[in-house]
């Protein structure tokens, strides 16, 4: 707004006997102010707000002000959002009679203006006197979850009430149509956005945002635990990628003493084990005998403690015989040190913080299986040429805090990462660093100071012949290798044994298998790096590998692990975080008309966006099983677009490169750009809206 116009507006106010009434008369008679953006009405209103501050005698009170307030209230539901705050301030609506304000909002609600009623309630802080379920239900039906979050944002009691309501709706026995029936004629009604899947995601978002005790939402938590149980049975009995001890740890911590989950555990045991196996695990998980089917209960009586200790399943015999097929640590067991005291840790740092040192760095945390909260690092592994140090971070942080030296650990970690004279090797360091920051907030700016860091994930992208289909000869026996394991197999000849990856890394003492896995994960980085530096050409890399990577901080290091560790790292050439960087052989460019995809049901926004750009898109319905995507992809020659858990299952059911995992935390536009870039889809102006929407 020009200075001349501002001065003219202020002169106008000074000439008016009643500037507040004058502004109102102008807004009521003008059509301009209802437009979006900074209209003349907006400029005059904001100038009056500033002018009143400079002339404190102007504000009115009493009957005259009440009449003006009544007129303003009638206007607020139609005015642009940017005028709300100035008008509420100018006409002192926060001082108006509260019952009168509530009545006005109630009138808006009964007229079907649910969004306007909610926004005005937020601005006037009326929420404590309203029914949170009544106010929020139509907003959720209109897919306005963000407005619902804002509505309860400052009121913990309302947050709990809302979460309890949402949790009730997520009970499998609850009929959601009872909620939707009264709103059938609702404008902008989106029934596809109102189902248990979407609501449970909202519950988890709210639990995390407002730090509410998950105990307020037993239905949603139980359903998430049940999905975890199903996933664990899949990993153990279908993929066969978890050891029995590791699997047992997770089963026990997931089920606990929850009767409902114990019932489901028994059903799953009978589906996957014989009666004896079911009885053994039922006893291990302390399932009450009265919950067991008769055959299992009878078997339970026959079991002896010795049987449970000594019995080893055929699967485990098979697994132990296969150990020689995996990468083996070349250093003796006594050179792996598990550090739980600061005295030991300081000796470790003396060895690590030596100029010219090359250190393999890795971290482990307990998988959260989609539950609330960011994972905290439970183990930090530092591998040197002759020994590996495993740092028990929770114990060390606890000790440092007790001694009043909270900054001790972050100080050493910062020294390591910022020292250009020490080469730090990692694989997908961004994911590790995110978890490290969640564990120790003092490290939040460390990524900016990193020097001498080599992320082998960046090298992975350039290595010739590195693709999952080359990684296993016995397809019926083992899952294709991926991520670091595939790189290790390609460079050193054998893959990593990843069966302990999804361990409970917070449980102490660590099992021997966990210690060996953690040490191997860090030490193999040293061997891979050494081999690639000695002979880069044989892996299709430039001879300046060392020069090109050491001392250069990768601008955007890629995540090795999603923050929730239940999502295994995607295979090389198929990234969750975006398209390939510097692909060795990019696909030939294609038009959107030639590109056919099927979108998993959590990616409907992405699907609609791609369809706008002319891509041939099929969307799964909310209730469809993820596996339907593979069926459609095979029948119609489509690429599957998915995210998270389902990726690992779906990619094995279609041809190589026919399944792509997008980052589900990004918006549809960013996801679409990832997809288009990865598959080299060239969009022209004529493609946009070329398909029926």
Strand content: 5-15%
Structural class: alpha/beta
The level 1 CATH classification of the domain at 340-464 and 483-547 is Alpha Beta
Report the end-to-end length measured between terminal Cα atoms: 40 Å
What is the name of the CATH architecture of the domain at 340-464 and 483-547? Answer: 2-Layer Sandwich
Spans of at least 5 consecutive residues with low confidence: 308-319, 469-478, 550-584
User: How many individual helices?
Assistant: 32
Overall morphology: globular
User: Tell me about the biggest sheet?
Assistant: 6 strands, mixed
Kindly report the average pLDDT value. 84
Remind me, CATH topology of the domain at 340-464 and 483-547? Nucleotidyltransferase, domain 5
CA radius of gyration: 31 Å
Strand order, main sheet: write it out. 1-4-3-2-5-6
Helix content: 40-55%
Give the strand tally.
Answer: 10
In CATH, the homologous superfamily of the domain at 340-464 and 483-547 goes by the name: Ribonuclease H-like superfamily/Ribonuclease H
Region (Disordered): 544-587
Keywords: Exonuclease, Hydrolase, Nuclease
GO biological process, one term: nucleobase-containing compound metabolic process
Protein name: MUT7 Exonuclease
What layout of secondary structure does this protein have?
Blueprint: H1 3-15, H2 19-29, H3 40-54, H4 62-76, H5 81-90, H6 98-110, H7 114-124, H8 132-141, H9 145-152, H10 156-169, H11 177-180, H12 196-210, H13 218-238, H14 244-255, H15 259-272, H16 275-284, H17 294-302, H18 305-310, H19 314-321, E1 336-339, H20 342-352, E2 358-365, E3 377-383, E4 388-391, H21 393-402, H22 408-418, E5 423-426, H23 429-439, H24 446-449, E6 453-455, H25 456-460, H26 483-492, H27 512-534, H28 545-549, E7 596-599, H29 604-612, E8 616-619, H30 627-636, E9 639-642, H31 645-651, E10 659-661, H32 668-678
Parallel strand pairs: 1-4, 2-5, 5-6, 7-8, 7-9, 9-10
Antiparallel strand pairs: 2-3, 3-4
Helix pairs in contact: 1-3, 2-3, 2-4, 3-5, 6-7, 7-8, 7-9, 8-9, 10-12, 13-14, 13-15, 15-16, 16-17, 26-27, 29-32
GO biological process, one term: nucleobase-containing compound metabolic process
Keywords: Exonuclease, Hydrolase, Nuclease
GO molecular function: 3'-5' exonuclease activity; nucleic acid binding
